[in-house]
């Protein structure tokens, strides 16, 4: 019977463990990248801009088009010239009459068709600047994909390490519960022995209950953190997952940012804004080209019926030529259009300069935060060691009847807080490191 119960319990525990998905940070990043809709949208924008660039380049190539037209006229037009007497030099009657003329100018059935050719020869540099704008658009889209991916990785890192922090804090609370249960048992024994009062026992029991409540709340927070991580990875929101990592900090040295101007200039966000400046510059040239000479060549070879002599038969013919146009006077429209484009370009440059200053500060701040995290790890670790020693001392004194439960409970609270601070310091270091790598453009999967 007991053997059957043991096998059943073991099988149940094994199924629960197998149902859980143990994930490392890299696996979480990879799943989120494959799922994220914003990243897929950025990749779609890149594909669109690549297609736009190809179309811009092909606009400079010869264009060929086929065309055909058929027309039926129920009542064709005619030329009806009445008869009249031919005049003489002196105006006297000539006695000779013109008999008149009646001829159909069109036919009931008319059709034509042919192949058209056109090639722009000179459009003031418009096509060249369109290609330049499209090329910059592709580059901006590529940087946007990279930037979206980096932002997603940073978001996953924050959620992942937050879950790790909650998990380790739960372990601390569970140790606190075990510790307080021992304290409650010890104080109860001392109360029955007449050493402590009932009030001392009740105080420890209240603290135990509060800690158990905190444990329940921590478990709820862990479930919420798992849901948030599942949502980002594309899992079912209630899927059971387990984090494979714990917060272990290897030996690290403080970082220093060299060539911060170069690092800031290479940030994806600034590259995007730099591209926007380039697009607005090309837009100025396009606006200028609208008021320059336009030269286009064209040709057509085809057939028509009736012929140019209004004969009811098919005639093959061809035409070729050049089309030239140039704006002369538009009441200052050119200057106004150029001024508008230049103001847009100036605004883009100002936004770039402002963003660069902000990114330089951001890089420096992220380095400060990372170095500060290292210092906090050292301080909180020392505080934790002191809290552990203090708790041991107070527990021994309680056993010896030297101190009251208040001292022990205070020591326990300090020990739990020191553990929580140490975990927070380590997690903040992990998050600050990801943020630092993001600010210097080195956060990769």
From TrEMBL:
A single cellular component GO annotation: cell outer membrane
Protein's UniProt keywords contain Transcription: no
SUPFAM superfamilies: Outer membrane efflux proteins (OEP)
Main location: membrane
Highest taxon, organism lineage: Bacteria
Subcellular location: Cell outer membrane
Record-linked InterPro entries: OMP_efflux, TolC-like
Family affiliation: Belongs to the outer membrane factor (OMF) (TC 1.B.17) family.
Protein name: TolC family protein
Lineage: Bacteria, Pseudomonadati, Bacteroidota, Bacteroidia, Marinilabiliales
């Amino acid at each position: 019977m007991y053997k059957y119960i043991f096998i059943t319990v073991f099988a149940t525990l094994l199924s629960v463990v197998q149902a859980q998905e143990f994930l490392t940070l890299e696996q979480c990043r990879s799943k989120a990248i494959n799922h994220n809709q914003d990243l897929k949208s950025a990749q779609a924008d890149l594909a669109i801009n690549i297609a736009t660039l190809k179309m811009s380049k092909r606009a400079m190539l010869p264009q060929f088009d086929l065309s055909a037209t058929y027309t039926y006229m129920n009542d064709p037009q005619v030329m009806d010239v009445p008869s009249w007497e031919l005049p003489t030099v002196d105006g006297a009657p000539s006695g000779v009459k013109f008999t008149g003329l009646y001829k159909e100018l069109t036919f009931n059935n008319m059709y034509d068709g042919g192949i058209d050719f056109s090639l722009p020869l000179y459009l003031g540099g418009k096509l060249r600047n369109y290609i330049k704008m499209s090329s910059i658009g592709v580059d901006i889209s590529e940087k946007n994909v990279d930037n979206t991916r980096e932002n997603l990785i940073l978001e996953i890192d924050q959620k992942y390490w937050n879950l790790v922090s909650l998990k380790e804090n739960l372990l601390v609370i569970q140790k606190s519960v075990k510790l307080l249960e021992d304290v409650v048992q010890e104080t109860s024994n001392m109360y029955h022995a007449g050493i402590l009062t009932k009030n001392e026992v009740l105080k420890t029991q209240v603290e135990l209950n509060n800690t158990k409540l905190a444990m329940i709340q921590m478990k709820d927070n862990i479930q919420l953190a798992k849901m948030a991580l599942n949502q980002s990875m594309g899992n079912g929101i209630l899927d059971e997952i387990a984090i494979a990592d714990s917060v272990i900090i290897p030996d690290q040295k403080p970082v220093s940012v060299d060539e911060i101007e170069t690092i800031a200039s290479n940030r994806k966000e600034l590259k995007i804004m730099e591209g926007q400046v380039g697009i607005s510059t090309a837009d100025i040239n396009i606006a200028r080209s609208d008021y320059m000479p336009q030269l286009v060549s064209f040709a057509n070879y085809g057939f028509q019926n009736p012929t140019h002599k209004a004969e009811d038969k098919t005639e093959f013919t061809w035409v070729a030529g050049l089309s030239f146009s140039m704006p002369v006077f538009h009441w200052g429209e050119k200057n106004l259009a150029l001024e508008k484009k230049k103001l847009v370009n100036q605004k883009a440059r100002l936004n770039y300069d402002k963003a660069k200053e902000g990114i330089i500060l951001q890089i420096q701040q992220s380095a400060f935060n990372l170095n500060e995290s290292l210092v906090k790890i050292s301080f909180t670790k020392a505080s934790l060691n002191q809290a552990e020693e203090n708790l041991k001392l107070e527990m021994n004194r309680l056993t010896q009847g030297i101190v009251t439960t208040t001292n022990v409970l205070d020591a326990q609270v300090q020990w739990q807080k020191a553990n929580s601070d140490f975990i927070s310091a380590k997690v903040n270091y992990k998050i600050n490191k990801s943020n630092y790598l993001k600010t210097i453009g080195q956060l990769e999967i």
